[in-house]
């Protein structure tokens, strides 16, 4: 449970729910068996990401240098010797193989456009921590779009097509998950530098990065509003804007305390709440729109 970071897997559940409910709204289709399979595959994918991230962070010694918070810094299970690194790697590999089996099942039924989505996911899982996180300003994009494609992939397994409604799921999910990683990087700047990472917070500093957080969190709500205006999603999806007051509080906290980690921790918690609740409400909005 520690190495797969089970407490973070709720993110996958709400993302898959958003994709599945969007396909029900746009195409009136819902295959329970394939919905269950795509959820299992997505969970295994997320588990593999978490395990490999912990494994490679241990190898780079970064886990021993980060100051842990409830939301950032990873876990110390390998550092403290509670699990052998080889066992952790094996767990990650088993999760990846399980996800691949699910992926092959869907590819035999719909090769395109699922293949590029699954290929992107495979590259992200295998190379994110050891390679991609060390490329300038790429880590947040890869993490965000990876989970965004998870939502789009869930949509495609039911709808069998990429269209405006699927993209309307992909965009806000990508931004929100990118911001999840982005804000969690604030406490880890010094440790991340020693591991050769080159994410945005390191490149621009915490003060300018705080404004980037504010801009992109606002862009999330704007993307949802524009999707409604363009009639890609039902009016009921606007229920996801109910998290805006929490977002405003998080923005103020980040701008005020971006250089003070202890005072910033509450914003990390608010950020998690915003992301989970907004995506869950997005899914609820699609469901409501399906029956109105």
End-to-end separation in angstroms reads 40 Å
The major pleated sheet works out as: none
State the helix count: 11
Unreliable parts = none
Topology as a string of helices (H) and strands (E)? HHHHHHHHHHH
Radius of gyration, taken over Cα atoms and rounded to an integer in Å: 19 Å
Structural class computed from helices and strand pairing: mainly alpha
Q: How much is the average pLDDT?
A: 93
Fraction of residues in β-strands: under 5%
Could you walk me through the main structural features you see in this protein, from its secondary elements to its overall organization?
It is a single chain. The protein is an all-alpha fold and 292 residues long. The chain has one domain: Farnesyl Diphosphate Synthase, CATH 1.10.600. It is built from 11 helices and no strands. It has helices spanning 10-27, 32-59, 85-107, 114-127, 139-159, 164-184, 189-194, 200-204, 206-229, 244-257, 261-291. Helix 2 packs antiparallel against helix 5 (139-159), helix 6 (164-184) packs antiparallel against helix 9 and helix 10 packs antiparallel against helix 11 (261-291). The longest helix is centred in the C-terminal third of the chain and has 31 residues, at 261-291. The mean pLDDT is 93.
How are the secondary structure elements laid out?
Blueprint: H1 10-27, H2 32-59, H3 85-107, H4 114-127, H5 139-159, H6 164-184, H7 189-194, H8 200-204, H9 206-229, H10 244-257, H11 261-291
Helix pairs in contact: 1-2, 1-5, 1-6, 1-11, 2-3, 2-4, 2-5, 3-4, 4-5, 5-6, 6-9, 6-11, 9-10, 10-11
């Amino acid at each position: 449970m520690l190495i797969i970071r089970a407490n973070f897997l709720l993110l996958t559940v709400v993302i898959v729910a958003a994709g599945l409910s969007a396909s029900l709204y746009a195409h009136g289709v819902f295959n329970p068996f394939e919905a269950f399979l795509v959820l299992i595959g997505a969970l295994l994918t997320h588990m593999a990401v978490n395990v490999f991230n912990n494994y490679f962070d241990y190898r780079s010694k970064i886990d021993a240098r980060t100051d842990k918070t409830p939301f950032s810094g990873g876990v110390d299970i390998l550092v403290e010797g509670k699990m052998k690194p080889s066992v952790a790697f094996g767990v990650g590999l088993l999760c990846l193989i399980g996800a691949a089996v699910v992926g092959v099942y869907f590819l035999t039924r719909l090769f395109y456009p699922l293949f590029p989505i699954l290929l992107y996911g495979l590259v992200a899982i295998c190379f994110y921590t050891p390679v991609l996180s060390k490329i300038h300003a790429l880590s947040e994009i890869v993490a965000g779009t990876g989970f965004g494609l998870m939502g789009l992939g869930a949509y495609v397994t039911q709808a069998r097509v990429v269209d405006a409604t699927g993209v309307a799921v992909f965009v806000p999910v990508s931004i929100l998950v990118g911001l999840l990683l982005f804000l969690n990087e604030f406490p880890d700047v010094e440790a991340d530098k020693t591991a050769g990472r080159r994410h945005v917070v390191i490149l621009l500093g915490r003060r300018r990065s705080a404004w980037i957080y504010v801009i992109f969190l606002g862009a999330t709500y704007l993307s949802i509003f524009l999707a409604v205006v363009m009639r890609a999603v039902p009016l009921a999806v606007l229920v996801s804007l109910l998290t805006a007051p929490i977002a405003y509080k998080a923005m103020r906290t980040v701008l005020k305390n971006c250089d003070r980690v202890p005072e910033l921790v509450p914003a990390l918690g608010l950020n998690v709440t915003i992301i989970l609740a907004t995506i869950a409400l997005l899914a609820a909005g699609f469901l409501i729109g399906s029956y109105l």
